[in-house]
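#struct-pred
JK: can someone run the complex with iron/sulfur cluster? inputs below
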Amino acid sequence: MFKSLAPPEYLATIDTVKCIRCKRCILNCGWGVYSWGGDKVLIATSKCVKCLRCYHYCPEEAIQIHDNPTRFKANACWGYNNIRNIKRQAESGGIPLTGMGSDLPYPILFDNLLIDACQVTNPSIDPLREPMELRTYLGKKPSSVSFVDDKDGHVRLKEKMPPQIKLSMPVMFSPMSFGSISLNAQKVLAIAAKECGIVMNTGEGGLHEDLFPYRENIIVQVASGRFGVNPDYLNAGVAVEIKIGQGAKPGIGGHLPGEKIPLEVARARMIPVGTDALSPAPQHDIYSIEDLRQLIYAIKEATNYKPVSVKIAAVHNVAAIASGIVRAGADIVYLDGFRGGTGAAPTIIRDHLGIPIEHAIAAVDDRLRQEGIRNEASIIAAGGIRSSADAAKAIALGADAVAIATTALITMGCTVCGKCYTGNCSWGITTQRPELTARLDPEVYAERLINLVHAWEHELKEILGALGINAIESLRGNRERLRGVGLDTQTLDILGVKPAGR
Amino acid sequence: MTEINAKGLRFKELNEKIRAAVAKGEKEITVKGVNGQYYIGDGLRGTATIALDGVPGNDLAAFMDGPTIVISGNAQDNIGNTMNSGRVVVKGSAGDVLGYGMRGGRIHVLGDVGYRVGIHMKGLKKQSPTIVVGGKAGDFFGEYMAGGVLILLGLNEKDGATLAGDYLGTGMHGGAIYIRGAVDKGFCGAEVGITEPDAEDLATIKEAVGEFCKDFGLKPEEVMKKPFKKLYPASLRPYGNLYAY
Ligand code: SF4
Ligand code: SF4
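RT: done, structure tokens with the ligand placed:
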């Protein structure tokens, strides 16, 4: 076989003195890097993706994975990946796929925003000893309320409140389908969502019966492939989400490679085993805001008016689009920024289309306020939320809640190696190979995810305390409590924040 | 037998009335004066038969699971959107995007249908959708098809007439399309193979045509006299080579 002219990205090495020939690395590597050579472990290093499963499971610390020091000659214009992708394309004629969010060094505005704190003139609050409210309700809010006194002296709302999703804190798990991730990974999300009082989202791949007990903490998704969608499914969760787009691949459809479609996934999606599950780029019944309205209400009619969320990728005109979505009757607008993750997307799309979530939140929040319809829908922000600080900044910019996916997968062992589209994830997350998925014990890993969510909960309370406010509601859209560092005037203007020092 | 007058009712009110009748256990429901109301039978379950008099609006029988809806005249777009089971019978013609993502049940249209009919239909051995069209179809018939059966009869067409529009079966990766008449390869998607139906196919066609004829009082033997062509997915992974791993 012609040896690839794209040199291996990583060098997997084993210290043969330390190695005790236990063969655990052979067993653990989902990519088949290691094999047994009779007296020692053989290494096919070009298959290595640096997921570090082997490193973690080697009892003797004998394994080292290095970035291949043999690189093309350094060149500020023709970077390693530019040259490598050209070579790969020359060899295959195909579109290079990738997983996870873009790894290119685009500016991350969250890192240029700082949060305010109280000093002397206004008191901060100690969240350990004083009540702190993170509870969040997602859905339409009435533009005005009126009350009635009922007989027994209670005050009641006069009008019926539109349906709301109740979250114990403004964080939820982003949609990831059964197929793109393993059932065990979905179970981790479901168990953690239930325990933490938040929600997970099925993505577009149906709802496996093992998740039925978690229905109170599930949002079901309807996308262009309509996989797994039936009346039971629509009514199974607390809300229904229409997926129009995804931040990592705006304007293109879903693509679950045939490698990840064994019998059980094929059944849930009602398609043949081993085909590529294609979700068309557009939903062919939606070519306009009016058409979107038609689907929103078709779903509302079928679910006795559950809240409907519409998920879009953040693109140039996101504010006008979001306004249309709200006017079409959506209860929630889910914005997925440019840095959002994916199970499989063409690299060229992931790395070059869309806009970052920070700009999108600010633009959409502004627009909905200007039009007087901000109360008509909640905003969920996603796409590169890495910490509770990112979450707090997103909320201060105008989001009602944030959604996390990559962060959640990292708690399950993911090292963001970006090879999810191969279906070989050594950590048992983005794979359907039974010997790999069996590694991900839902109970054990849910514990880790629950820890993370609780840690963020404490951190958010600390941030609120420092800000001297005791409810997340007071931070929402409160851009006065943010300052920009190293941002130009125009960006500050778009974000609606002052520069630090002002 | 319950009769509902749809005149002046908004879709929500009309659907509430239909649901209430179904909930009461009513098996035969007639709706008079239907005039463009959307979502009739949306998400409806059970086994009732609902006869509609007039022209219903878009998204009829969306997500429907069980009932039968019979339309005396023409119907509009998006009938049977993601329908799960049941039956829709249209005695006239119908519009675009019928049976989008349909998962089971039958749609029978005596006349013609518009664009993008039967796209992304699904199917398993146990549960599989069928659409039979008596007349002709527009472009993108059976696009992205992943399962189920689509049949185009061209009942009133001359021999050799083309029954479907352009881009027939584009992106097809499952299921089968049967066309009673000529198929021009030039109008098919690249992912489609054309062949003669075998015995198993003929049994499928016969069963589906039999059901269709029952709804419209036609003779299945007459319909079966003309030969069919079968369109099938040439590959399970039509775009498998598109990507570099
Ligand atoms: S387990 Fe991961 S890091 Fe180790 S050799 Fe295999 S691919 Fe490389
Ligand atoms: S989920 Fe698995 S394949 Fe995907 S980035 Fe994480 S470790 Fe790699």
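RT: quick notes.
Residues A 51, 99-100, 409, 414-420, 425, 427, 429-430 surround iron/sulfur cluster (ligand 2) (CB under 6 Å).
The first helix of chain B runs from residue 11 to 23.
JK: thanks, will look after standup
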